[in-house]
Each structure stands twice: as structure tokens, then as C-alpha cells.
Design a protein that fits this description.
Helix content is 31%, strand content 23%. With 286 residues, the protein is an alpha/beta fold. It has a five-stranded mixed β-barrel, surrounded by four helices. The chain is globular and about 50 Å long. The N and C termini lie far apart (39 Å). Bound molecules: hypoxanthine. The site of hypoxanthine has 13 residues, from strand 5, strand 8 and strand 9. Hypoxanthine binds next to strand 5, strand 8 and strand 9.
Length: 286
């Protein structure tokens, strides 16, 4: 497009079209965003098609180590799926709308369900590093929102409802997958802060009083955008560390990466059951 800035709607659909052109006929109804250290899940897809983000128009590129920055399409137990290995964050300098852009593109591919995953600190005192948590709801304490700015009604409403941002039926299906695969799942509220500094112990005490069970720096922008576009969301946090002030250790990205690496087998087992189940059940079950 020359001479004129494309609107968000046009950009989303141009990128979705570029993906379709390379999808080898796959038409996924379920997509997943793989968080820090959790990208390996997509390696096990069959009929894999890999597209580096850098080859997609308008797509923001990841810069944090451990975020590969590629789109992987393929099949899990025969069901077509699309995965993002790595995401960008607002703390890298992207606008919240840019952070949510890839989720919008996945939704524009025709998904009925978007699965979001992340590494998070455990705020709930009963959580241990290595636990998995079904996200039941979120606290947007980032101070930003990806819908800030003019609304395009073709994408969604100006004031989208967030009452069922994580539909109960999908949470129940996740718990059933946990039971089938023997992966123990906690449940709780995910709070996002802007980062990139980790929280202070006082901030963690505040978050606990506010009802948070886990804390991170991602996911919420994508969840808001998917809800805006009428796509259902299921979320899983991998609790990689005790939040600040709970243990006596300083927090490091290395600990986050190590724990994510340690539990990726369990994580893969859960998702290998959940994704095809949700793909087969379709949008009707929620
Ligand atoms: N805080 C914020 N983000 C995180 C954490 C944390 O403790 N662990 C993994 N991501």
C-alpha cells in the first residue's frame, strides 16, 4: 500500500492472508500462544509449516531470549492447529495494539478458540514452582489496553464485555484434560503488571490482597483483543517461581527459563490432549 496508512483491520487481514497462502491447506480453528520457555510444544506437530514472524507483513518480532519468534502450523492428533512460538511485550517498546496484533491475526484466520500460555510468578502461597494454573480471570494492572484509540466496528465493539473472558466451559475442558493426562492443575487469577522489572515484595502483597494468584507481564493484551473479536480464550500459566518476597531468593530470568524447561513435558502432555479435544468440540460447547 503506497501513500496511505493501512488501518488495523486491513493489516490484520493482509497478514492472515499471507499466512493462509503458506498454510498448505491447513485451516485451524484452534490457536495457541506459547509463552517464555514453552515454545517446544509446537515442535511435535505433524505436517509442520514454519513461518518466521520476520516474513509476515506487519508482524512484530520478539527480542527476548527464549522467544523463537515463529508461527508454526500443523496437526495435533490429526487436528489442525496454529501456534505462536514467542510473543512480544509492551516493555520491549511495542504499543499495546502491536502486542495484541498477532492474536488478532490468529483470530482472523477463523479460530473459535485461542489458548494463551505464559510463565508467571506464584502469588498464591499454596503454589510451587512447576505448578500449572488454569487462568480463571485476570487483573489488568498494566496501565494500558490494546483497544485504546479509535475503534473499528468490523473488528469488534467499542466496549467489549469481559464477564466471561475465560469461558467456564473451556476451563472445565482444561481440567478434564488435566485429569486424563495426570497433570495436576491449579486455578486462579492472573495479574499483569507492565514490567520489565520484577515486582517488589510490597507489590506482591498488594496483588494477593487484590485477589491475584499469579503475576506476569504478558497475555492480557491478547486476551482483550480476542474477546474484542468474539473468540473464546483458554489460559494456562506455568508457575516458574515464587513471586518476590515469598522465598528468600532474588528473582532471575534464568530461574523462569529453567522451570519452564523442566515442566515442558507435562505442559506438552496436557496440550496434546486439550487442543484436539477443543478443536473437535468446536465453538458450540462454551
Ligand atoms: N513476575 C513477573 N513476571 C514473571 C514472573 C514474576 O515473578 N515469573 C515469570 N514471569
Amino acid at each position: 500500500m503506497m501513500g496511505r496508512t493501512m488501518g488495523l483491520y486491513e493489516q490484520v487481514h493482509e497478514t492472515a492472508q499471507a499466512i493462509r497462502a503458506r498454510a498448505g491447506g491447513l485451516s485451524p480453528k484452534v490457536g495457541i500462544i506459547l509463552g517464555s520457555g514453552l515454545g517446544d510444544f509446537a515442535e511435535s506437530f505433524s505436517d509442520k509449516v514454519v513461518v518466521p514472524y520476520a516474513e509476515l507483513p506487519h508482524f512484530p518480532h520478539a527480542s527476548v531470549p527464549g522467544h523463537a519468534g515463529r508461527l508454526v502450523m500443523g496437526r495435533v492428533r490429526g487436528e489442525p492447529v496454529v501456534a505462536m512460538q514467542g510473543r512480544v511485550h509492551a516493555y520491549e517498546g511495542y504499543t499495546p495494539a502491536q502486542v495484541a496484533f498477532p492474536a488478532r491475526v490468529l483470530c482472523a484466520l477463523g479460530l473459535h478458540t485461542l489458548v494463551v500460555t505464559n510463565a508467571a510468578g506464584g502469588v498464591n502461597l499454596a503454589f510451587k514452582p512447576g505448578d500449572m494454573m488454569v487462568i480463571t480471570d485476570h487483573l489488568n494492572l498494566s496501565g494500558y489496553n490494546p483497544l485504546n484509540g479509535p475503534n473499528d466496528d468490523r473488528l469488534g465493539p467499542r466496549f467489549p464485555d469481559m464477564t466471561t473472558a475465560y469461558p467456564a466451559a473451556l476451563q472445565a475442558q482444561l481440567l478434564e484434560s488435566g485429569t486424563r493426562t495426570g497433570v495436576v492443575l491449579k486455578q486462579g487469577v492472573y495479574a499483569i503488571l507492565a514490567g520489565p522489572s520484577y515486582e517488589t515484595p510490597a507489590e506482591i502483597r498488594m496483588l494477593r490482597m487484590l485477589g491475584a494468584d499469579a503475576v506476569g507481564m504478558s497475555t492480557v493484551p491478547e486476551v482483550i483483543a480476542a474477546n474484542h473479536m468474539g473468540v473464546r480464550v483458554a489460559g494456562v500459566s506455568c508457575i516458574t517461581n515464587l513471586a518476590a518476597g515469598i522465598g528468600n531468593k532474588p528473582l532471575t530470568h534464568e530461574e523462569v527459563a529453567e522451570t519452564a524447561n523442566r515442566v515442558k513435558g507435562l505442559f506438552t502432555r496436557l496440550l496434546e490432549d486439550f487442543l484436539p479435544t477443543v478443536a473437535r468440540a468446536g465453538a458450540s460447547k462454551a
